[in-house]
Amino acid sequence: MERLRPPRAELADLVAYDAKDVRAEINLSANENPRNLPGEVLEKLADRVRFDIPFNRYPDPLATRLRELIAQANGLDAANVLVGNGGDEIILDIILAWGGPGRKLVDMPPTFAMYEIDARVTGTRVVEVPRNAEFEVDGEALMAAVADQDPDIVVISNPNNPTGTMTAETLLIELLNATDALVLVDEAYFEFSRQTMRPHMERHPNLAILRTFSKAFSLAGLRAGYLLAHADVVRELTKVRQPYSVNRFTQVAASLAFRERMVFEAGVRETMRNRDRLVHGLAEMSEVAVFPSEANFVLFRVEQAAAIWRDLLHDHSILVRDLSRTPGLEDCLRVTVGTEEEVDRFLQAMDEILARKHASRHFGVNATANRHLEQDR
Ligand code: PMP
Asked: Which of 296, 308, 264, 288 is nearest to 28 (CA)?
């Protein structure tokens, strides 16, 4: 038969997550760490590869060694930790287990797109509680949605990607007190915000905290993330997860990075310094409105954002994230905090682009005026 049966109808109007795999000299689009693994970690990793990783064997399904390290550092038992193929896999596992047809997830857009995508893929209903103009969670609307809709999952990115906004701990506690839904606090940018809901786990068995090795730990290319949660939550997730999703190499690299985590501290501090320079630099541009950020990226609003995105890429080989078509983020771009040099080059490029736009606008006005003159003649 020369035909293909269509997949589930729910996929028809779903758009794939667009990671924008565009080549650029400076990639500030995916909130990665601009630095590769520190040399000392790379060397240890190379030794392990040479001498003791049996690549012919399936990996430990639960990444026991890494799980124990993470548990110990967080004052928990290994049973409270789940390691996944990036935080992305764990988000899907949670929605597979707590979502599904007939169940509901509360989402607070604009936020990380995967929550909604995974909800739709699994037939989970999405209840949207939009953030306000400053991208803060609307506490009243959130509590009303929890009371009226009785959701099964509430997910909150904290700090929020792509806005950089933190949600007050008091509101999160109020939320945890009001619902038995699984509350996923996504702390993918925890190492930059240095704020965590970890102290509230004992009192709230429905609190789950997501972290990742993709940002502060320079391991986006290997895919490793972890969840801190009640042992019952972890146990349920092991029923839906892919058993061998975290490969041996990743388990070894993530364990080394985690054990040596103090080595990454200098990079985190450098990122925070560069974030301040980036925010100040953007704030000096009169055409730009920059939003405060607690993460390793900065969101800003500028007229003709999509054109500026193109100019950054084509004229300066700098890739940032164009969010201008996302509802609530009209005219917004998100830029990852790069190295000092990358931040300088980005700010300089923005200056040049805005100056050119400014000049051509004046030129444009004159040109129009001249045309009128010509027509008058
Ligand atoms: N949560 C948030 C808020 C993120 O921004 C990201 C990465 N962009 C993730 C989770 C997933 O990260 P990873 O799969 O690389 O661990």
From this structure: 296
Query: Would you tell me which CATH number, out of the four given (1.10.150.130, 3.30.9.100, 3.90.1150.10, 3.40.50.300), belongs to the domain 20-31+265-376?
Result: 3.90.1150.10
CA of 87 to the centre of ligand 1 (A): 5
Task: Report, in angstroms and rounded to the nearest whole number, the Rg of the chain calculated over CA atoms.
Answer: 23
Statement: 39-259 belongs to CATH 3.40.640.10: yes
Q: Is the CB of 31 under 6 A from ligand 1?
A: yes
pLDDT at 369 over 80: no
Pocket lining: 124 vs ligand 1, CB cutoff 6 Å:
no
Atom of ligand 1 nearest to the CA of 213: 16
- Global pTM reads 0.94
Two structure tokens written together for 172: 């999160």
Q: Where are the beta strands (DSSP E) in 303-371?
A: 318-319, 321-322, 332-336
Residue-wise pLDDT tens digits, 331-366: 999 999 999 999 999 999 999 999 998 888 766 554
Whether residue 214 has its Cβ less than 6 Å from ligand 1: yes
Please work out whether the CB of residue 157 comes within 6 Å of at least one atom of ligand 1: yes
pLDDT (mean) for 285-307: 97
Q: Is the pLDDT of residue 374 over 50?
A: no
CB of 236 shorter than 6 A to ligand 1: no
In this structure, the residue with its CA closest to atom 2 of ligand 1 is 188
Task: Note the pLDDT of residue 360.
Answer: 84
pLDDT in tens, 77-107: 999 999 999 999 999 999 999 999 999 999 9
CA of 86 to the centre of ligand 1 (A): 7
- Please report where in the chains the tokens 């771009």 appear, as a residue: 333
Q: How far apart are CA 353 and CA 359, in angstroms?
A: 10
Tokens of 302: 């500028």
Nearest atom, ligand 1, residue 91 CA: 10
pLDDT at position 17 is: 74
Domain boundaries, the chain: 20-31+265-376, 39-259
